[in-house]
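Entry 12.
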Amino acid sequence: MYYRDNWLRWYYDDVEYGSKVDPYSKFEIKLSNVINRPIKPYYEELLENAKLIRDTFSGPLDLLFSGGVDGEVVLRTYMDLKIPINVYIFKYENNYNRREYEHAIRICTELNVKHTVVDFNLEKFFENEAESIFKKVWCDVSGWLPHMKMADYCDGTPMFGCSEPYYTRTSRDMSKKFPWVYQIEEDAKYWSSYYKSQQRSVIVDWYEYSPEVLISHLELPLIKRLLNDDVPGKLSSFSSKAVVHQAYWPDIVIREKLVGFEGDMQPSNTARPQFMLEFDKQVIAPYNITSTSAKYSADEVLALIT
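Predicted 3D structure (tokens):
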């Protein structure tokens, strides 16, 4: 089961939790109401989500920790509950993920968390394995592919700290108010599709496992202000995630978003080694794949799942 009581269902070509069989498979999302209790405050729902995942999946839980805020929140949630998890940090050759790796090591050191460092040869992966994985998932950029391979390095149920509820403004025009929408990306579902082909349980979108997390997130004062267009200049909730979680863990460091492959380059969506850029150009680009998403207003979300 990918989500509690299948409250969120994704489809490829009308097949529930199906595989993406070709580059042009149709992707869809459907939401349903499985909530049968009062919603608790956001922090408490994070704890409930963590406990439910622990109770649902047998064996060890293995957090693949890049050093980003989403994964840090997952780690801190289990620490607060004193529920043991295994933490894996991947280190690329030539310091391709130097800054994310340093964040991950810093956080584990400060929190006194035992962790396993895995040396991962990124260039060799793209030479030998990336294309075969790509043709199982048909993703739109090369950056998704190494993470699919990483689960091979752990024995338990892999967890990725991603899919923190994401809201985006419907216009860049700041001269007047515009609506905001909740956006569910196809991107993380590439991972689910791949692991299904491997017949392996995995939690790729930890925050979406329980719908109560989404509803309680909507009740946060900062999120309400964003959705009401009361924070001038803001185009999405993306850069607010660290601020949101500092209310519960004040020592979370606000930091720039990294793609994890920049090395010493300036962060950007295209900051990655030349061999990855060539892979995008030579292997992925000819298929002209477009990643899709489902978008809902806050009112639509509430109507569908409560």
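Annotation: The first helix runs from residue 42 to 56. Residues 4-305 form a domain with the Rossmann fold fold (CATH 3.40.50).
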